[in-house]
């Protein structure tokens, strides 16, 4: 698949080609077949030569994008201590990595005598957009809102940060020339969908190619969709966008695959940067884990799964990772590549970097910068186009060498940061803050005497969801009573998910009756 060059305007003939069998001209659904630059609504900026740059600007100037500077990546930026990545700084680095990967892929393609394989500006726009939907308090907030949405608010499609991103781009954010959403091109909307399906995806569709990343098969044979990029209410928009880019069913577009790969690279390297600076990556237990596995590789391989699952000795975590990789991704997992990855990470990160605590000196900064730059460059250069021969792989992948190294670096973060009891204690408190806010807003909306004083934005979000449910096709449209309940629930989730960490704290305290900064609070929420 080849997108228009960044400087090439869309083909006028393609723009004029209506959807076969579609709605009447002028309708919201009158779309161009296979036209990457098609938008949902007529756009006042259509005369400009570069539709991709228009999309990039709209995302960059979005208040949802600005909000990311005050939203947790792993540790809340509102907390004291060493500076860490927030969602905005992470996003900026993902975008930089993604653009380099896209340009490298195009350079190799030209050297092979072919045209560009992806549009670097579309890749960059998708990277800027990819975390817009993350709620307060990072992945903890995502898990909490999903549980509340399903168990207490009756939303069968729950809450998912990737689906919330797509909802922001296409429904919640605003631009002058569209009734809702940023009215982005099909190419950018499709590229923003890291998991291009909704929770309602059918088993037959999954069986056709096998479960991709984000969908698991349970022991009873049923499929569990735990990652997705559209709620059922937004699915038609995603289907239209993907018709524009002609993507394979349940497959990322090439631009979406580059964005996803760049996100993995940034996550694997920059979290090491953060927590090494903060003194959280303790050398001794990490070194013990790596030496415990490397010193007994063959002995670990000989043990049965039940024994390894129960083992607490150093090295067991890495062995569980090796087995998980072989179980989930046999198309790429390789024992010798895993051994090389563990050995390299042990040598370059554990022994060389972490053995010397970060002391804030320029020498330490240079050592850390060298580590970060070296690994990111290796990963970027390893990206390759791949035939769609396995459901677990996108159209762009890391080399087997790089993939194993990324997984081992991510293991260090998950095992020695996310599993820390002190972080878990704080996260339990954050979970209660979100639960308190969701429940209190629901009670307020149920109060016949005081409902009119609920935040105007909350009422507008409910009205928007109500309108969307009413526009669903007849076979998927809920009854009026069901739609009212669903709209109320989706509006509450949209409202709470759009808060910053600090706003979530403030809302929770205000709902609990605290009067701190009372008059400064209301209009901002």
UniProtKB/TrEMBL annotation:
Residues 1-20 are annotated as: Disordered. InterPro entries: dGTPase, dGTPase-like, HD/PDEase_dom, HD_domain, PHydrolase_assoc_dom. Residues 87-268 form the HD domain. The keyword Hydrolase applies. PROSITE patterns: HD (PS51831). Keywords: Hydrolase. The keyword RNA-binding does not apply. SMART domains: HDc. This is DNTP triphosphohydrolase. It comes from Microbacterium algihabitans.
